[in-house]
Amino acid sequence: MNRPKQDLLGIEPLTKAEIIAILDRADALYATDNAKSDAMAGKTVINLFMEPSTRTRTSFEIAAKRLSADVVNVSESFSSSKKGETLLDTAKNLDAMKPSAIVLRHASAGAPQMLSSAVRARVINAGDGSHEHPTQALLDCGTMRRHAGKIEGLVVTIVGDVMHSRVARSNLFALSKLGATVRVAGPRSLLPPGIEALGAEVFDRVEPAMEGADVVMVLRLQQERMNGGYVPSLRDYSRFFGINARNVRAAKHDAIVMHPGPINRGVELSSDVADGARSVILEQVAYGVSVRMAVLEMLAG
Ligand code: CP
């Protein structure tokens, strides 16, 4: 993928054909219920997670085990980074143990790129700061394609904290390459300047952004990346930008509702919609294992 060393650092460097190849392989794996294979037998995958994660870390672990790889999980709280070791030193020491792949989540944008040039193992970006979360975008696109039968021509409305969202950035790159129309809606304070240049149509209000949408992708309000001042209060945010049973009716009658998780219930998304008939949130999670199997198999299998 990101040549010459085959890493997955982001969606931005991928071609449309490369994205489709991953989705096609993930679909094939999903159809077998992610059947166990020996594609990575005798190989080791290290999950190096320097930020919290439930879905991505577990999903990569299950995916690697389905491919018969040995999996080692390293989290920040139990690593020597607590004693002051740099990320690069940590990665080089792990690389000396000869893993086939290092899956990295890190709070700093660009951390996977830095590792890529320093280690022999394949590097897979599992989310770096507000930069990219490529496997999340791949599983999101795959879920949309499974529902609509295609991506080209879909209208996808992304609502919420776009500013801090690596999920939104990766999806913008992927959906633009695949021919979807992408709209973003949120308070101006949470829409990065120049987002139009990435191919997004910008809306200040939720209902007009959702008119005729095939997909409503709701983003988490990332309070851990805010130093205050982005929204007046959670109640105000929810009132104007929260997705609920009333405003979701502006989308197409068969529109699906997505969320990468974790959800702030009652803030960006009401529980009746999160758990309702339009929601494909748990399907996203299920398909994520197939996407991560496809990525691991193609890079390190
Ligand atoms: N979607 C996602 O990245 O979730 P986690 O933070 O739980 O991995």
Average of the residue pLDDT scores: 95
The kinds of small molecule bound in this structure are:
phosphoric acid mono(formamide)ester
Largest sheet: 5 strands, parallel
Widest sheet: strand order?
7-6-5-8-9
Question: Proportion of β residues?
Answer: 15-25%
Q: State the helicity in percent bands.
A: 25-40%
CATH architecture of the largest domain: 3-Layer(aba) Sandwich
DSSP helix count?
A: 10
Give the CATH level 1 class of the largest domain: Alpha Beta
Structural class: alpha/beta
Look at the structure and name the CATH superfamily of the largest domain.
Aspartate/ornithine carbamoyltransferase
Low-confidence parts lasting 5 or more residues at pLDDT below 50?
none
> Globular, elongated, flat, extended or rod-shaped: what is the shape?
globular
Q: What string gives the helices and strands in order?
A: HEHEHEHEHEHEEHEHEHH
Give the end-to-end Cα distance, rounded to a whole number of Å. 14 Å
Work out the radius of gyration: 19 Å
β-strand number = 9
Q: How many domain units?
A: 2
CATH topology of the largest domain: Rossmann fold
